């Protein structure tokens, strides 16, 4: 087989069976890297390249998945030494990562020893690349945190400047907050660390549930003033409440629709971009970052779960809704549902502009929230002409559970305990939008239909 192929098959193919790698996507499936078999019936097996010689001097000229592959096949000690001597290598890859589909394809064609080599020698890299399985990323990120904590403590103890010492303290505290939000090994549901970056304002994503097998996956995207250091614990608690609400509804609906209780959910407390404060809230600069990061995250899951893709929902608040709307307008991937609360809008003019299946878009606006209707960043998604569905957040009586639903007030009360807002977002995330309350008299007819 030609040396450029990364796969092997049971029967040795002829030269005509191999085609050069192309970044094009055919029928929605990215081709295997460095070469792909034309015959789809061939049995694909990983091919270890750990014996192939690599020149370290050539690595600086490589990028993307090509560089990742070459790093993975370096001997472990040599790889660890190279990363330690060239820390910008990891920074550069993460700043401009390969497409998630390419990363996923690369990972799937790697041998187990090469995967483990990359994971243990470069845990920060593996832990933050979309397209690599969530459980692998969790293991890598949890291994990396104590390593960087030790480095930061050493920097703090030897720091000669106040700024360096303060930055080290800030990062140490942030990592501690992330560890706190992760809970313990006995936490229910299980929690995993999908990404972590303690520099600057910080970035992180914590998964509640099993992202690799969940039937329903919900991404929660925060808005302005949310920082990892200040709100990762609270945001993860909000995600936990949404998770519990979704499970409770599946169990309840199971009484009239058997089989629902067997379905599983995962909720991602996603803080994968820098949110704005009062100094930059009027700019879209950070929304562009959020747009790209959120798109990569979802594309990564879809690449990993190809063939078993879950029902994907995005719940976005405030400035985060603008970033989400931009991602769903400007990228080609599709999701199944979108819930927007406290949204300042985007350039999208209607649900027709959004890559959301069946126009499954919901909008909630609380009393005394000054952000909705401002159309600060474009069209108001709650406007009748937009075509989105109304999601009530004003509170009231739930005719199904016979419980009082708390109202949401102002801009930051949409995720409160027992709110109508949380109830509706939970139902949207498990594909039961028919039960979402709208504040109209039709709500009672919807609930009676369920009870029958």
TrEMBL record:
Domain DUF1023 span(s) in chain numbering: 197-376
Protein name: DUF1023 domain-containing protein
Organism: Galbitalea soli
Taxonomic lineage of the native organism: Bacteria, Bacillati, Actinomycetota, Actinomycetes, Micrococcales
């Amino acid at each position: 087989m030609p040396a450029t192929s990364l796969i092997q098959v049971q029967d040795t193919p002829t030269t005509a069976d191999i085609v050069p790698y192309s970044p094009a996507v055919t029928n929605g499936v990215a081709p295997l890297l460095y070469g792909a078999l034309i015959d789809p019936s061939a049995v694909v097996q990983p091919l270890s390249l750990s014996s192939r010689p690599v020149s370290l001097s050539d690595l600086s000229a490589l990028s993307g998945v090509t560089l990742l592959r070459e790093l993975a096949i370096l001997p472990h000690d040599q790889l660890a030494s190279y990363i330690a001597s060239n820390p910008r290598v990891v920074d550069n890859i993460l700043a401009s990562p390969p497409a998630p589909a390419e990363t996923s394809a690369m990972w799937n064609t790697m041998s187990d020893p090469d995967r483990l080599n990359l994971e243990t020698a470069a845990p920060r890299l593996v832990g933050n690349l979309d397209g690599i399985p969530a459980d692998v990323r969790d293991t890598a990120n949890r291994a990396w945190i104590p390593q960087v904590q030790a480095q930061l403590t050493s920097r703090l103890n030897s720091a000669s400047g106040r700024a360096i010492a303060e930055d080290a303290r800030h990062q140490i505290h942030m990592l501690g907050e992330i560890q706190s939000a992760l809970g313990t090994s006995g936490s229910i549901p299980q929690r995993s660390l999908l990404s972590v970056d303690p520099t600057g304002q910080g970035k992180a994503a914590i998964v509640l549930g099993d992202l690799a097998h969940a039937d329903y996956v919900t991404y929660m995207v925060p808005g302005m003033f949310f920082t990892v250091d200040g709100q990762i614990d609270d945001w993860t608690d909000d995600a936990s409440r949404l998770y519990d609400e979704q499970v409770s509804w599946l169990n309840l609906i199971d009484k009239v629709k058997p089989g629902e209780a067997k379905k599983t959910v995962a909720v991602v407390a996603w803080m994968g971009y820098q949110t704005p404060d009062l100094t930059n809230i009027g700019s879209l600069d950070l929304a562009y970052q959020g747009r790209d990061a959120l798109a990569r995250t979802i594309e990564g899951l879809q690449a990993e779960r190809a063939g078993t893709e879950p029902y994907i929902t995005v719940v976005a608040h405030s400035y985060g809704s603008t970033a989400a709307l931009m991602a769903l307008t400007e990228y080609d991937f599709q999701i199944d549902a979108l819930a927007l609360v406290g949204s300042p809008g985007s350039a999208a003019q209607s649900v027709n502009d959004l890559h959301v299946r069946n126009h499954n878009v919901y909008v909630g606006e609380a009393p005394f929230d000054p952000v909705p209707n401002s159309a600060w960043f474009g069209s108001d998604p709650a406007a009748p002409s937009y075509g989105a569905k109304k999601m009530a957040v004003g509170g009231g009586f739930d005719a199904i559970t016979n419980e009082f639903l708390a109202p949401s007030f102002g801009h930051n009360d949409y995720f409160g305990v027992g709110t109508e807002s949380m109830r509706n977002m939970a139902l949207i995330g498990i594909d039961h939008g028919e039960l979402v309350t709208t504040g109209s008299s039709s709500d009672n007819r919807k609930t009676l239909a369920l009870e029958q």
